[in-house]
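step 4 of 6: structure.
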Amino acid sequence: VHARPESDSLEIIARVLDQSPVDDAVGIGDDAAVIGPELSNGERVVVSTDTLVDGVHFGRAYCSLQDIGWKALVSSLSDLAAMGARPIGATVALTGAMRDDLTDLYEGLRFASRTSACPIVGGDLSSGDQLTITVTVIGQAPNPVVRSGAREGHVVAVTGPLGGSNAGLRLLLDDPLADDRVARRHRRPPIRLVHGALLASVGVSAMIDVSDGLFCDADRLASASGVGLRLDTVPVQDGATLADACTGGEDYELLFTCDRPVFAAIGDLFEGRGLDIPTIVGECTDDASQRDIDGKPFRVAFPDGLGYQHRLG
Amino acid sequence: VHARPESDSLEIIARVLDQSPVDDAVGIGDDAAVIGPELSNGERVVVSTDTLVDGVHFGRAYCSLQDIGWKALVSSLSDLAAMGARPIGATVALTGAMRDDLTDLYEGLRFASRTSACPIVGGDLSSGDQLTITVTVIGQAPNPVVRSGAREGHVVAVTGPLGGSNAGLRLLLDDPLADDRVARRHRRPPIRLVHGALLASVGVSAMIDVSDGLFCDADRLASASGVGLRLDTVPVQDGATLADACTGGEDYELLFTCDRPVFAAIGDLFEGRGLDIPTIVGECTDDASQRDIDGKPFRVAFPDGLGYQHRLG
């Protein structure tokens, strides 16, 4: 629908590997893949991998090493959450870390590991010029939720207000010592594994994590499902703008679709668990090319940014 | 037993994560980890991750992008082979690749993927200053073979002659276009998955892949098992030296231990499959501190190199 720096590259890879770049749940271009035979409890194994690079995905000036360790694990876990999976374990491949950095980095990783009950089971250490962390998480899911199940008339909802991370980044670039709510939101994004598992258990039709911005990730989900999007009420985190919420990245909330009776059940379920009830942001339409917010195409509403994409090469 | 640049760092990580660095089969410091519940066929899930960095693990002057793709997957698969595991799938996290490099890199990955029946199921693309590839492989194993099962009197054996990769590297550094057997051996190391699965099926007591050199990897196995090593007949690849074979890296043969009746069974089994019969290189002793070759300590026999370790930081 709109140009993304990465999509060309994904198409090259998919062509070489003879795979479809939009193949759901398995394949290059999706966040998590379902692999192998079933587990003895009938669940499926899912895997996802994510890399953070110094100067590209984080800045040492405004993120502590502990923050970076936390974010590295959380950004991968977010992909499991979007499948409705629980983590089994993670590997950490660390390149270009100084020995003196290891303790703080791994304290951040350990804190995320314990918070998510995801043991770090292995890894690799390499020298290199640029601090680079690749985390691969393996999980199990009774019914992995894919991106392609959204249908006309389903509501589109998110698990929490958006834009905080981008607003926090803006603040931190101005004042690296900023420590208010949005700054913390950028440095320590949330882990939505519990939310994802609950949403999968009630049968949401499609789900994705909001890592590259609402517009970008909603578009991915809609494209995989072959539906249009009509958004209206986007919840904006205090301290952020609507543009942050629509086009900023790294919020790590979950975006999902379901029919209205299921959404009502989700409200009861989340309320019963003491979790914030998700917010409906719009609905799926039958015009697969439609990507509207408040009656205007995404690109007209916010021409400056349509997703938080890191440029390759 | 002898200093390794990485071991300090692994100890820091293990301490922060509250894990033992020599914890077998699961944990930092091992090549592959057994994770999660059993599969429905009773097998276990194993995972391993490995990073190649430009200028550290390979040189663009003498390795083609296809070679690099091949090596990236093969070096991770080698850890699965050493557990007696079959691959289920792999993820590829690629940092710092130019778009024009993707086709060749992924052709190398695809070739290794097809050769090993290991589908590439996902990944991540990031910009960065240095070409860095992290491959994580997930596999399944009926009985994962760990490093710690070697006992006094067990033979120590390898699946093929050693040193070819290091000799090839030396040749390629001198002549980047060299294309003889050892040069090819360096650029396209073998995949020993079939060997590893067969060895696991007959009940070898311990196994490791020879990625950092015979002395280094044999020491790791012996240390994990609490046995000594007395080596004598090290098979040297044509074109390589005994020093290459003992201290060079990246041969990706398998080193294993077993009792003599099992070794006889392995001979029959491998012969029946048309595979080269492994070579006994020595035996395990009751003196846990012993690391001898031809009656001399490793460090006396080859004082210049005790394993092919990439320096951190």
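step 5 of 6: annotate
 - The two ends of chain B are 23 Å apart (CA to CA).
 - The longest helix of chain B spans residues 65-83.
step 6 of 6: archive
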